[in-house]
Amino acid sequence: MRAPFLKTAEQPSHLLAVVDLSSSELEESGKGILSEASRLAKILNVNWSAVGFLAADVPAQDPVWSQILETFKQYGTPELILIKGSKEIFDAEEEQGRLLCELASERAASLILLPHSGTGSILAPLLAAKLNGALLTQALSYQRENQTLQITRSSLGNQLVETRNWRGEAPLILTIHPRILSSVVLPGVTTQQMPLSLWQSPTESKPNLCRIVERIPADPQTVDVAEAEVIFSAGLGCDDEHFVQVQELARLLGASLGVTRPVYDLGRAGFERMIGQTGKTVAPRLYLALGISGSMHHLGGIKEAKKVVSVNIDPKVPIFPNSDEGFVADLREILPLLVERVKSAAGGAA
Questions:
Q1: Which residues of the chain are in CATH 3.40.50.620 domains?
Q2: What is the pLDDT of residues 319-342, one digit of tens each?
Q3: How far apart are CA 142 and CA 164, in angstroms?
Q4: H-helix segments, 162-285
Q5: CA 316 – CA 41 distance, rounded (Å)
Q6: What pLDDT, on the 0 to 100 scale, is given for residue 63?
């Protein structure tokens, strides 16, 4: 048994990493949570397990699970616990909270890790209240100082960063900021045999007082760029005519529109679309920079993007060394062709 963190040898600490399996696959945020759980378990020198829910109408022997389990193994997950719930478990967050609390008590979990997503931000306060624990949201980093875990978190709409200390007097429910959730497997993580445990509550479930009746996907055209998954961003290399084409391309491909400070100053888009250190800091899965030279202020706003692809006519602009892929091209030539190609493939529909 590993050395316990702020616990006695008779009551060792345990870390639970909650992942969303509602779509019968492990999404990017779930992979990031596994990486953060592995990192935090090493810092605290504790054991950890991944936890997900299994709806009553989905058999654990479903072939889809073999692929999911392989993904968990890649991230060095020591154990996967599937909580058996009702058919509506993914629409009943109050019931999810109750079941997680029972499991956490049974496993003597002193720390529960969740992504700061829609579901995670709802479950976290439920767990803190039921377990009489501490709650910290939007964690950015953490380090151990003797018997204290120092946690740096984002607050006040990402305008401030503050540091809080946790000494283990009460369970800690911690949500991780989406900005630091990466699907990259940490160095040194090895694939290992992973037991799959099916867990069912010993108590009878109660009727859900509230449940989700409908999920409305966010509109990429109006969603906050700080929350956008894919962003097409226009710089001064796009004149008025071609800026309209960037807007159309974003609409056709379901991407959000971003602009640089000079484009905002020209009045082509509102402040809420401006990306950079004086605007919005973004962390999309894909950031497409069109006609953007890449000033220091703009690069500071996109440094958390998972992948940056840039197009510029000047091969010497600073955006290229800061891109995963770069293309030297004239937007006046390629934008009309790209829009027509997308329209043809999509039949004119988004």
A1: 14-199
A2: 999 999 999 999 999 999 999 999
A3: 9
A4: 240-253, 261-265
A5: 44
A6: 65
Query: How does pLDDT run across 86-127, given as a tens digit for each residue?
Result: 888 888 888 999 999 999 999 999 999 999 988 899 999 999
Contact of 86 with 205, CB cutoff 8 Å = yes
pLDDT of 172 > 80? The answer is yes
Contacts 24+ apart (CB under 8 A), 162-171: 164/136, 166/134, 166/136, 167/6, 168/5, 168/6, 168/7, 168/13, 168/110, 169/6, 170/131, 170/132, 170/133, 170/134, 171/104, 171/109, 171/110, 171/111, 171/112, 171/131, 171/132, 171/133, 171/134
pLDDT tens-digit readout, 4-39: 445 544 444 799 999 998 877 788 888 999 999 999
Q: Are 276 and 304 in contact (CB under 8 A)?
A: no
From-to residues of CATH 3.40.50.1220 in the chain: 225-346
Question: Is 3 a residue whose pLDDT tops 50?
Answer: no
Q: d(Cα 308, Cα 322) in Å, to the nearest integer?
A: 8
Crossing angle for the helix pair 240-253 and 331-346, nearest 10 degrees? Answer: 30
Strands 148-155 and 160-166: antiparallel
Q: Are 131 and 171 in contact (CB under 8 A)?
A: yes
Residues shown for the chain: 350
For domain 14-199, which architecture applies?
A: 3-Layer(aba) Sandwich (3.40)
Candidates 249, 250, 279, 248; CA nearest to 263 is 279
* Per-residue pLDDT tens over the stretch 293-316: 999 999 989 988 889 999 999 999
DSSP state of 2: P
Q: Are strands 308-312 and 256-259 parallel, antiparallel or unpaired?
A: unpaired
| Of 44, 14, 48, the residue nearest 149 (C-alpha) | 44
Tokens for 66, please give them: 């073999």
Distance from C-alpha of 129 to C-alpha of 131, rounded to nearest angstrom: 6
- Checking 266-274 for CB contacts under 8 A at 24+ apart, the result is 268/234, 268/240, 268/243, 272/224, 272/225, 273/225
The CATH class given to the 225-346 domain equals alpha beta
